[in-house]
């Protein structure tokens, strides 16, 4: 790639008068004659010139453009459907839930949103909820957790870390799980129904396990007192967070998905990088190779509207998406690759011209000062 | 040090006020003087403990910490650390505390170790036994218990435990020989004298009976100055007062030689000895690079503060909405709410400061220090700067100035011993106009042109004969040479066996040795000084004896020396030898014209000339002289001045005998070196004490002046004719006219061959120029002079006093361009200019080691200066400038994404990166490659650098650290940071950026959080900055490969490890598996590659374009070399297959 000169210099033939009078050389201060000490280590000396960088530019262009096209096509093939169910609009079915939200209401507010898919979703479909204007990356919020508490440490369970304040204690009873992140866990529930042409609805099975990192579920998050069945006893002496409606050991009926190792909880606990984010909610698995996972047609999304976003102008969305080898829909990467590839190619051409015009001049020996 | 000064002060006060502020009285053997003399007032002096250590066990920690935090950088980091400790900041105190702690500890350990060594050395010195005479017996004591007034016995080869006044020695004449090698490096033996009246006390018992007091000045650091008086109470009579001078004072640290034992009395002890007073460290010199670095630091500090301010303001603007400030999901604690808004704002400001403080990294200081310290080893290791004869290589006394060697604009060099060998050879002498050439030289060499001169060996007549012999005798007598017989072998003195030939002359002045040896070849041999009689063997092998009465020592102001001798016939002679200008005005008769012509002729030839004159003294005159001298010597105040006056009145009305010529050969390759320095754009000034003609001849020989150099003279001779004002204006007009036409010529491109100017100025004129005159026009002289000098390529300053040398350097330093100066010299007279110049270089010469000791770098020969500047200086400069720029660049890249992130996290000071990454980024992920780069980089082969000195101009005037380049680097850093951040941002924003470990099974679709975001940015960052350095590296040794790829590998391994374990001692596990999950995602890989390419792209394009369109000399040479190598490889592969491996590796 680069014009290089491997000047393996004569390592010790370069020292005039080095071995003169033997008597004087006996002096102890005579420096050693190693190539390192004489700064004459053999070295590769590349230089960046138009000529040498040219191939690299063309190569980058030639590699990046196909990758970019591939990425772009893949990304475009991914099917994605997004529906905003915040209910800010008066016409929205969730408008009343949005308006009449109160922390104290015991009755869950429900709303259902009809939508239709034009194209069938073939492979596994991932269901996400998306929040915007929600600062999960606020410093006060990010640090408001206690990892040893979540790891099942019994002492931390009853003595939550100072970082969890003001969500560490409720009426002097330690909160489990403590902290702002846990306290604000997303608690809308969503159910998906396929509306058959004959107006009958059939519920689409949603897989609630396998949405969190394996390591999080099996190592980082542990229920206190091992994974014994009696979670109620394990959480004895703690109370549930103030904004929750039920204790942590009632998150799920499945003991493998309950307490701290509830996957919805784990997913929520991984704080998002940006104020607009989406988190994996459920997976709709492909059942047979014959039928699409979600055939085109009409659907209804049933939402139990528990999560208030009104106060901070937030939005709530539900997203359905298929994935490819490169993940979800992401046109940016493909476009970026194509752009960079083209720029490199263009620069390559420019450099070629420059090389042609000036390359010979600057390398001609008579230019020397 | 402080304590001793305090103690000294206290002791002075205790001693009572009338008891001298500037002199002290010492009672020998602590005996009271007889009544009638002054009352016995015991004074308190410090004990003989030497304390060179800085710390004690108790005060080490506080004192060392205090000293370290006095450095502004350390203090800044300490403040940041304290802020982190006190308030709630985004990053843990560890991130800044750990590096700071590391730096402080390493420095403390280093200083502690050095101090421990000093303690050990002090102890061994303080506890070594000394022998003290008490009550007529020898008592052994520890050295530190020695007190002022003790009489000490010192044996041969022992060192003196404190400053002593010699009382008596085992030699009959009361002299002893001493080497001061450990004090000033001069290994020659020096003679010290006992006062005549005490030299008889040479047993313990006798010494004990001595009743005397010594009055002397309070201690002062000048090694060569001492005035005192000894009062000896022999009987009940008035005491006998005798003068004491530096010839009586034995200095601590010196060693007794060739003398069995001496008795001496302690006068200065402990920290008051001259050696201890000379411990004072030299003033700190700072390099130009360091100054630029500090300027950059201030810029970055401003950036830091403005960043923090902007963010604080924006934070409060953004938070004006309470739902943003405190949404229901993220409430504050009660205490936070109750805090006053101003306090909150201030805390937020500090927190932002802490978050962004990495932009000024601690590690930069450490890396720069390490680079300088380790880099200086390459100088000491350099084989080409090793001198076989001396058995020594270059020495580095301060590593702070390595890069300054690449920035030198003015070189001030001494002549004798620096440009020339200082290996004197007697060439000829001229008596009354008749020239004598010793046979040895005459036979050995063909002397062209000499045949036509009057080479007279035959006697020129009876009168001439007499003069001639007197001349030879004068040279044999008028010197301070000692004769050292060869070492005794098996108890037999070889000298006796083989005649006198093996005896060796030793003197501090090589001229004298050359003269005495020359006389030997002309038939007059100086044998020895015995019982203050000088013995010489004349042509008829007879031994003549002269009694040596007085020696009027040489000094650089008088520039002559004299002796007064009494011949065996009882006649008194005063012989004087000295520089022509010092002797001719004092001559009243003799063949002045012939001698002067010869002297001038010789001077033009580049020989060192001395004139010899004499006068006969009548006994009465001698008495008068004696009286004058002794009264001057006895004076306690202004002795120097009085002596000078006495000498002046004695040394007059001479009869001129003749002149001598001694050759001082040019050093090996001196001319070549000067030429290279010229080509490298440096201005070379020769500052010498020599006379104008000699110096000018040397300058021609060393190619400082060339044939076409137009010489401008600014000498006393000229200023006598015209006044100084006119001369200066004349010269400046000449120079400026030439200058103007030159620029026009270069503009039109007609000719680049312009002849350059050389200026000769002498000391007297210089002081007239520099003298601030009353009329107010005096200030202009300086300016005009500087203007002239600026346009001269070479300047010769002759007849300079040592202090004037420093003045010149100071003048140039202070001129408006503030050029970087370098002074090089070998003798004690160069020390002042070596200390004054930006870089001081000492030559390990024959005139002792003083210059080398006070210099920043010491080299064996002048020719080594070439490699020192052109190769080492050049390398160090490019290395350190890249180091500084790169360090700022990589920290902009590092911190700017954090700044951008604040806009997306509600200005909450959320750090983008994990604590470990924040801490280790500068310490381990990116530190080694740049350190090794800054030690190994060679953008051009060193042979080319040496061959083509003009390359030095490429880096002149701190060109790599100019503001445009700094701004380019900073913008590059900002660009890269923007690419990192928004690249990652668009990948995360609104898209499902997911990991996909197993392609087919869908149950590993995970979301990435903020730590993955930061890790992605950080990974791109580490790769980009490391690869950026790789792009800049032009000299890839295996070490560079190892370190660059090694640190990337280390980053990956560390990240895997850091995320791979639940760390039990941490209270958060936020990085758990983050790195692995990121790497298991295809888009992460793709985006890392993409972002690295994008951030490197502009720099590569800029480099390539600049190289193609506006190549610097350096780049052209690199290019040419690459082509040459390529061609060679091609021919190799065509010619033979022997080099097959190499050529295939090229292909």
UniProtKB/TrEMBL annotation, chain A:
One of its GO terms (cellular component) is transport vesicle membrane. PANTHER family: CELL CYCLE CONTROL PROTEIN 50 (PTHR10926), CELL CYCLE CONTROL PROTEIN 50A (PTHR10926:SF17). The chain crosses the membrane at residues 47-73, 332-354. Residues 1-32 are annotated as: Disordered. One of its GO terms (biological process) is phospholipid translocation. InterPro entries: CDC50/LEM3_fam (IPR005045). It holds the Pfam family CDC50. Keywords: Cell membrane, Cytoplasmic vesicle, Disulfide bond, Glycoprotein, Golgi apparatus, Lipid transport, Membrane, Transmembrane, Transmembrane helix, Transport. The keyword Disulfide bond applies. This is Cell cycle control protein. The keyword Repeat does not apply. The gene is tmem30a. Belongs to the CDC50/LEM3 family. The lineage of its organism: Eukaryota, Metazoa, Chordata, Craniata, Vertebrata. It comes from the Eukaryota. It is a multi-pass membrane protein. It is found in: Apical cell membrane; Cytoplasmic vesicle, Secretory vesicle membrane; Golgi apparatus; Membrane.
Automatic annotation (TrEMBL), chain B:
Its main location: membrane. ATP binds at residues 414-416, 512, 554, 577, 608, 688-690, 799, 805, 829-830. Coiled coil: none annotated. One of its GO terms (molecular function) is ATP binding. Its cofactor is Mg(2+). One of its GO terms (cellular component) is early endosome. Residues 129-202 form the P-type ATPase A domain. Residues 852-1112 form the P-type ATPase C-terminal domain. It catalyses: ATP + H2O + phospholipidSide 1 = ADP + phosphate + phospholipidSide 2; a 1,2-diacyl-sn-glycero-3-phosphoethanolamine(out) + ATP + H2O = a 1,2-diacyl-sn-glycero-3-phosphoethanolamine(in) + ADP + phosphate + H(+); a 1,2-diacyl-sn-glycero-3-phospho-L-serine(out) + ATP + H2O = a 1,2-diacyl-sn-glycero-3-phospho-L-serine(in) + ADP + phosphate + H(+). It is a multi-pass membrane protein. CDD domains: P-type_ATPase_APLT_Dnf-like. It holds the Pfam family Cation_ATPase. The chain crosses the membrane at residues 72-87, 295-318, 349-368, 916-936, 966-988, 1008-1030, 1042-1066, 1072-1097. Residues 42-96 form the P-type ATPase N-terminal domain. It is found in: Cell membrane; Early endosome; Endoplasmic reticulum membrane; Membrane. It comes from Denticeps clupeoides (denticle herring). Its EC number is 7.6.2.1. Belongs to the cation transport ATPase (P-type) (TC 3.A.3) family. Type IV subfamily. InterPro entries: ATPase_P-typ_cyto_dom_N (IPR023299), ATPase_P-typ_P_site (IPR018303), ATPase_P-typ_TM_dom_sf (IPR023298), ATPase_P-typ_transduc_dom_A_sf (IPR008250), ATPase_P-type_domA (IPR059000), HAD-like_sf (IPR036412), HAD_sf (IPR023214), P-type_ATPase_IV (IPR006539). It is an enzyme of class 7 (translocase). One of its GO terms (biological process) is positive regulation of myotube differentiation. Component of a P4-ATPase flippase complex which consists of a catalytic alpha subunit ATP11A and an accessory beta subunit TMEM30A. This is Phospholipid-transporting ATPase. Keywords: ATP-binding, Cell membrane, Endoplasmic reticulum, Endosome, Lipid transport, Magnesium, Membrane, Metal-binding, Nucleotide-binding, Phosphoprotein, Translocase, Transmembrane, Transmembrane helix, Transport. It comes from the Eukaryota. Mg(2+) binds at residues 414, 416, 826, 830. The active site is at 414 (4-aspartylphosphate intermediate).
């Amino acid at each position: 790639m680069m014009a290089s000169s491997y000047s393996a210099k004569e390592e010790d033939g370069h020292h005039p008068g080095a071995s003169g009078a033997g008597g004087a050389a006996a002096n102890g201060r005579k420096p050693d004659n190693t190539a390192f000490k004489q700064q004459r280590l053999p070295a590769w000396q590349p230089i960046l010139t138009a000529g040498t960088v040219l191939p690299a530019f063309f190569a980058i262009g030639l590699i990046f453009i196909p990758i970019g096209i591939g990425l772009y096509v893949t990304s475009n093939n991914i099917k994605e459907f997004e529906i905003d169910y915040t209910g800010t609009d008066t016409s929205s079915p969730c408008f009343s839930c949005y308006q009449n939200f109160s922390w104290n209401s015991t009755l869950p507010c429900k709303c259902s949103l009809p939508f239709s898919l034009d194209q069938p979703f073939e492979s596994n479909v991932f269901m996400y909820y998306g929040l915007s204007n929600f600062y999960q990356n606020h410093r006060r919020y990010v640090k408001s957790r206690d990892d040893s508490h979540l790891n099942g440490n019994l002492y931390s369970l009853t003595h939550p870390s100072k970082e969890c304040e003001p969500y560490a204690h409720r009426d002097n009873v330690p909160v489990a799980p403590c902290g702002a992140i846990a306290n604000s866990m997303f608690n809308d529930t969503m159910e998906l129904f396929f509306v058959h042409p004959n107006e009958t609805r059939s519920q689409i099975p949603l897989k609630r396990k396998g949405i969190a990192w394996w390591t999080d579920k099996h190592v980082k998050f542990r229920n206190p007192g091992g994974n014994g069945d009696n979670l109620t006893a394990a959480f004895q002496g703690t109370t549930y967070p103030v904004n929750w409606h039920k204790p942590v050991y009632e998150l799920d009926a499945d003991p493998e998905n309950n307490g701290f190792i509830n996957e919805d909880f784990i997913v929520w606990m991984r704080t998002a990088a940006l104020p607009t984010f989406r988190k994996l909610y459920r997976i709709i698995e492909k059942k047979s190779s014959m039928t699409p996972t979600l055939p085109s047609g009409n659907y209804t999304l049933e939402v139990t509207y528990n999560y208030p976003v009104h106060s901070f102008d937030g939005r709530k969305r539900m997203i359905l998406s298929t994935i490819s080898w490169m993940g979800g829909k992401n046109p940016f990467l493909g476009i970026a690759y194509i752009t960079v590839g083209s720029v490199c190619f263009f620069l390559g051409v420019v450099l070629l011209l420059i090389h042609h015009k000036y390359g010979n001049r600057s390398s001609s020996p008579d230019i020397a000062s | 040090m402080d304590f001793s000064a305090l103690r000294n002060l206290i002791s002075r006060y205790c001693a009572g006020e009338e008891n001298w502020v500037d002199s002290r009285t010492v009672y020998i053997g602590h005996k009271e003087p007889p009544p009638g003399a002054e009352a016995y007032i015991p004074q308190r002096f410090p004990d003989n403990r030497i304390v060179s250590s800085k710390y004690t066990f108790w005060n080490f920690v506080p004192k060392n910490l205090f000293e370290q935090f006095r450095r502004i950088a350390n203090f800044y980091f300490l403040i940041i650390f304290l802020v982190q400790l006190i308030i709630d900041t985004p990053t843990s105190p560890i991130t800044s505390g750990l590096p700071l702690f590391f730096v402080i500890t390493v420095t403390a350990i280093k200083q502690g170790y050095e101090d421990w060594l000093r303690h050990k050395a002090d102890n061994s010195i303080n506890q070594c036994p000394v022998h003290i005479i008490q009550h007529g017996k020898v008592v052994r004591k520890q050295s530190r218990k020695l007190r002022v007034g003790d009489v000490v016995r010192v044996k041969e080869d022992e060192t003196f435990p404190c400053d002593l006044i010699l009382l008596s020695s085992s030699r009959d004449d009361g002299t002893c020989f001493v080497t001061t090698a450990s004090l000033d490096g001069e290994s020659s033996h020096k003679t010290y004298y006992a006062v005549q009246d005490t030299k008889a006390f040479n047993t313990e018992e006798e010494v004990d009976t001595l009743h005397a007091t010594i009055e002397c000045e309070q201690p002062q650091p000048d090694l060569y100055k001492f005035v005192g008086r000894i009062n000896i109470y022999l009987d009940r009579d008035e005491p006998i007062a005798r003068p004491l001078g530096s010839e009586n004072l034995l200095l601590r640290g010196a060693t007794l030689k060739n003398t069995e034992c001496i008795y001496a009395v302690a006068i200065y002890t402990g920290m008051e000895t001259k050696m201890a007073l000379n411990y004072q460290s030299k003033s700190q010199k700072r390099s130009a690079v360091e100054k630029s670095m500090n300027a950059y630091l201030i810029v970055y500090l401003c950036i830091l503060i403005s960043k923090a301010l902007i963010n604080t303001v924006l934070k409060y603007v953004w938070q004006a909405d309470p739902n943003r400030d405190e949404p229901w999901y993220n409430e504050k604690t009660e205490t936070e709410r109750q805090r006053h808004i101003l306090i909150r704002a201030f805390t937020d400001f500090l927190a932002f400061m802490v978050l962004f403080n990495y932009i000024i990294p601690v590690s930069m200081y450490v890396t720069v220090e390490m680079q300088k310290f380790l880099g200086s080893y390459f100088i000491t290791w350099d084989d080409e700067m090793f001198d076989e004869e001396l058995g020594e290589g270059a020495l580095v006394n301060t590593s702070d100035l390595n890069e300054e060697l690449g920035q030198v604009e003015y070189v001030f060099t001494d002549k004798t011993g620096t440009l020339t060998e200082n290996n004197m050879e007697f060439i000829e002498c001229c008596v009354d106009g008749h020239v004598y050439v010793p046979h040895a030289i005459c036979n050995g060499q063909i002397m062209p042109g000499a045949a036509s001169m009057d080479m007279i060996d035959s006697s020129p007549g009876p009168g001439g004969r007499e003069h001639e012999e007197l001349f030879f005798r004068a040279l044999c007598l008028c010197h301070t040479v000692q004769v050292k017989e060869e070492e005794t072998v098996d108890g037999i003195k070889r000298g006796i066996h083989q005649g006198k030939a093996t005896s060796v002359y030793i003197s501090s002045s090589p001229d004298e040795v050359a003269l005495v040896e020359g006389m030997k070849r002309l038939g007059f041999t100086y044998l020895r000084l015995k019982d203050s009689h000088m013995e010489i063997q004349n042509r008829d092998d007879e031994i003549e004896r002269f009694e040596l009465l007085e020696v009027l020592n040489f000094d650089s102001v008088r520039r002559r020396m004299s002796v007064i001798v009494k011949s065996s016939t009882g006649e008194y002679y005063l012989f004087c030898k000295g520089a022509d200008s010092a002797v001719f005005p004092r001559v009243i008769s003799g063949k002045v014209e012939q001698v002067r012509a010869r002297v001038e002729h010789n001077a033009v030839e580049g020989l060192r000339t001395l004139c010899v004159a004499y006068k006969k003294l009548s006994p009465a005159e001698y008495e008068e002289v004696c009286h004058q001298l002794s009264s001057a010597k006895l004076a306690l105040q202004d002795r120097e001045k009085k002596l000078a006056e006495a000498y002046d009145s004695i040394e007059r009305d001479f009869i001129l005998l003749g002149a001598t010529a001694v050759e001082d050969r040019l050093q090996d390759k001196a001319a070549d070196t000067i030429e290279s320095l010229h080509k490298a754009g440096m201005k070379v000034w020769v500052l010498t004490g020599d006379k104008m003609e000699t110096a000018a001849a040397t300058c021609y020989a060393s190619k400082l002046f060339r044939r076409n150099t137009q010489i401008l003279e600014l000498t006393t001779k000229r200023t006598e004719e015209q006044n100084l004002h006119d001369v200066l204006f004349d010269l400046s007009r000449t120079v400026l006219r030439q200058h103007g036409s030159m620029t026009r010529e270069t503009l039109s491109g007609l000719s680049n061959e312009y002849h350059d100017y050389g200026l000769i100025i002498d000391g007297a004129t210089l002081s007239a120029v520099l003298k601030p005159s009353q009329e107010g026009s005096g200030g202009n002289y300086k300016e005009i002079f500087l203007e002239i000098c600026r346009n001269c390529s070479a300047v010769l300053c002759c007849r300079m006093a040592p202090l004037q040398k420093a003045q010149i350097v100071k003048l140039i330093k202070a001129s408006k361009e503030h050029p970087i100066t370098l002074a090089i010299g070998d003798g004690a007279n160069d020390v002042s200019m070596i200390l004054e110049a930006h870089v001081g270089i000492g030559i390990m010469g024959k005139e002792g080691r003083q210059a080398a000791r006070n210099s920043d770098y010491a080299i064996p020969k002048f020719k080594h200066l070439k490699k020192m500047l052109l190769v080492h200086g050049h390398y160090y400069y490019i290395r350190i400038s890249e180091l500084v720029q790169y360090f700022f660049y990589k920290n902009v890249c590092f911190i700017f994404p954090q700044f951008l992130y604040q806009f997306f996290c509600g200005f909450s000071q959320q750090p983008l990166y994990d604590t470990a990454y924040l801490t280790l980024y500068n310490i381990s992920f990116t530190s080694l490659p740049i350190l090794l780069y800054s030690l190994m980089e060679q953008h051009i082969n060193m042979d080319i650098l040496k061959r083509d000195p003009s390359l030095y101009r490429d880096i002149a005037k701190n060109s790599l650290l100019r503001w445009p380049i700094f701004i380019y680097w900073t913008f590059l850093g900002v660009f890269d940071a923007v690419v990192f951040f928004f690249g990652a941002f668009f990948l995360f924003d609104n898209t499902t950026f997911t990991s996909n470990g197993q392609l087919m099974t869908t149950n590993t679709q995970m979301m990435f959080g903020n730590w993955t975001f930061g890790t992605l940015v950080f990974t791109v960052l580490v790769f980009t900055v490391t690869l950026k350095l790789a792009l800049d590296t032009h000299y890839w040794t295996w070490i560079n490969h190892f370190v660059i790829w090694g640190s990337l590998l280390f980053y990956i391994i560390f990240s895997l490890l850091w995320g791979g374990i639940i760390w039990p001692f941490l209270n958060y596990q936020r990085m758990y598996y983050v790195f692995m999950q990121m790497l298991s995602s295809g888009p992460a890989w793709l985006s890392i590659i993409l972002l690295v390419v994008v951030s490197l792209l502009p720099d590569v394009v800029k480099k390539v374009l600049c190289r193609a369109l506006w190549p610097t000399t350096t780049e052209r040479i690199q290019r040419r070399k690459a082509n040459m190598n390529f061609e060679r490889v091609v021919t190799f592969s065509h010619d033979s297959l022997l080099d097959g491996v190499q050529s295939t590796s090229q292909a």
